[in-house]
Structures are given as C-alpha cells and as structure tokens.
C-alpha cells in the first residue's frame, strides 16, 4: 500500500515539475518548436534559443513587442515594451524576464509601451512613452522602475507619444515625439516642457545619435524623415535623399552605426539603404534577396565592427562581414517573420531577434 502511495506521489511530481510548471514559466525551447517570441543567440547568429522564461508563475511574456532597449549604463538590463502587457525587464541579459510593477500604479498593467529611454550615467533613470487611459503619456522613474511618475500627457485623446530621448551630454534635457506631430523638449528633467516644432504629420519614432546628443531624427507614418543637429531648433528634411528608391519611404527600421556616428541604415520594402553623411544622401546596400521580393524588417550593425551588418527578411537573417558586399543566409527555423534585431552593445556575439511582432 505504501509503495502505491509513493508511485502516486512520484507521478504527481513528474506532472507538476515536468509539464505544468514549465508551461507557466516558459522554457528555452528549440526554435523549431516555437514560432513567436524573443530569441537569443550567443554565437553571432549561428544558433538560437527561445528566451521567454518568466520569473512570475502563471504570467507569460506578451507576444506583441513594441520596443526593445538595452540599459545604456548596464546592458545586462534589457527592457521590453509590449502592446497591452506593459513594461518587462530582464536583469540577466535575457535569461529571465519579469513584468515591471509600478508601486504607484501610474503605469497600467495593460499599457502599450512604445519607447524606453535610459541614461548612460544612471542605470536607474528611465523614461517611458506609453499609451494608456486613452491617451499618450510620458512617465519617469529614478529608482530603476520601482515607481514611476507622470511627467507629460497629450492634450487630445486618442493621440500617443511614440519616442523619448535623454541628452547624454546634459541629462536634464529630455525630448519627446508625439502622434500630434509635436517635438517637445524639457530642460529640467521633465518638470516643464516647450514645443520646438509642430510637424505637418504625426511622429511615430524618435532616434537619437548616442555619440552626438544634439542630433536627433524623427519619422512620420508616411516615411518622412527629418534631422536636427541642435536639439530641435532647426530641422532638415531627409526624404529627398531616398525618394528615388521605390518604396524606400515604407521604413521599417532605422539604425545608427555606433562606431561611425555619421553612418545610418534604413530598412524598408525597397531593401536596405545606407547614408554616411547623417542622412543627407543614400546608397543602396545590395542584398541577395530579389528586388521587391521581401521587405527588410530590421537591420543591425556589429557594435564593435562596422563591417558586419545583419538584415532580417521574412523568417531568415542575412549577414555580411564586408560592409554589405557579400552576404550569407542564416535561417532561424521559425514560421513567423522576424520583426526586429538587436545586438548587445558590450558583446556583439549576443543577438536578440523579435519573431512574430
């Protein structure tokens, strides 16, 4: 009788720890058994593992990722902004993830987090651009995400805030881009704001040059790209430089080369373009994908070696080790499309891919 009880207990333990518990907390599955999620490579993209393990039992990592940012002070800290699942964080370079719970409840658990800005000097300083309460808001944390305070909200309902940036040379200066077309600046760390420019269209992205804090780029839904070199005082329209490339205005990603501050890549339905003069002129980067065959969804540059470029198209990654002259394909064995690529700033062998965004 005792032996039978032992068998029953053993079977229950196998069921709990072998099947039920991994279902709730996630597992590092082989890519062939999963179709969406965050995938991680530690060998420059040769092999991949699913990186979705949640430290909260019963809470799964949301499938729709809107933003992916390394902490600029400590790149082992990674933030994910999700659609309807709020902010998530990994403090161990993507090994495990946890939802960030704001103790003040200013960040809703169902918030859409469109951008995350962190400090190069203080790893606890964070600005979020979120959509919640039927409007866009900017929230600030000075304690690493334990608490957040509201520092800005759009005056008109249904409009969002889609970008935030901290000037690395003067972190009291913060910039945001809104769906109303506003580029705003705070000179006192978010206490007050002023409008530098109202654009004729909404803004959906804000990119800052990390090597030149005064240089920023904004993008509109219709593929209009603008650059400022003086934190918003004046602007240059960059669209004419790539207008001759068919469908190049359908921009999917914008990446700056950390080793060469004047080099920028844009991916689009056209393919891949590169500028070496901060966006004034553009040239095609030839790929081994047929013209108009697949949209390039994301681009990434090796943070230590500018000659190594990654491009995502469909469910495959393409890599060049000679500045785009020659390419090789690296299939990921997933069925969904790869939406974003991110290379760890301090270790370019570590690459993350967002699949099925």
Automatic annotation (TrEMBL):
Q: Which domain of life is it from?
A: Bacteria
CDD domains attached to this UniProt entry: Sialidase_non-viral (cd15482)
Pfam families the record matches: BNR_6 (PF15899)
Residue ranges annotated as transmembrane are 5-25
> Which keywords does this chain's UniProt record carry?
Membrane, Transmembrane, Transmembrane helix
A Gene Ontology biological process noted in the UniProt record is: xyloglucan metabolic process
- Record's keyword annotation contains Oxidoreductase: no
**What is the protein's name according to its record?**
Photosynthesis system II assembly factor Ycf48/Hcf136-like domain-containing protein
The source organism is: Candidatus Sungiibacteriota bacterium
